[in-house]
Task: structure prediction
Amino acid sequence: MTRFCGFLIDGLSRLLEPTARDAVIGDLAELNLGSLRTVCELCGLIARQQAPLWRDWRPWLALLGIAGLVGVRLNFLADRLNFTPFIYLRTYFKYGTRYESGLSLSEETVTWLSLALAAFLWSWTAGFAMPWYRRLLPYVLLSWPAIWIAANTSRGSLVSWKLKSRSLKL
Amino acid sequence: MLGEFEYLLLTSAIRLGEDAYGVAIRLDIENATGRGCSIGALYTTLDRLESKGLIKTWMGDATPRRGGRPKRMVRATPQGLKAAEAFYQTVLRASRGIPWKKGLARS
Result:
């Protein structure tokens, strides 16, 4: 068994119920099927165990309602929520002055608090729309590479767009 | 009414008795049917049968061959035995009067 397959099998087995995990891994070790076949068998079991969860309405609501419909808006919301304190702190520590956004400090505070409240409420809704028990952990874990790829793709396109606009200016 | 694979799993567990656990059941089903049996199908069916109260499972001994991991032992409950028998009787009744040899000769 290669080191990578061992790592993969260990990672995949963590998606199983803790009680079933040892028995399944023990069975696979006893069958001695080979690394690739073991990974396939494990993926098959995980897929079969996860599939019934989609019979519930909550993952569909989360997918269509939250990720599909309001995903873009939430992205802007989260971006602004993170960017506002960052730019204020950076400007303050770098230049020793307040960042001028065109809003007064109280207006900026209210805006930021509203954004924080909206993010909190959406997080709350998403948490209850999806079943919060650990069987949905695979989706959360699998979403990270997808988010990473999406972030890098968009960053790549942004960089190329900036370069293009700069070259046009030149 | 049981499904085909549920029946195979139940009869295998009954046949193996005290030695019924994941790998033994899988090999028994493969020998009986001549078809492969995936771990996914086996464990999801075990979970389903257990939730129906047709089998009982518990963690058994660990062996060095299994990397020190325990076996999931299986035993059919009296309801499981009854359900398997009912399935068998149904198949027998449903198959009565079928001209197997004629059917085979035609194909």
Summary: Residues 78-95 of chain B form the longest helix (18 residues).
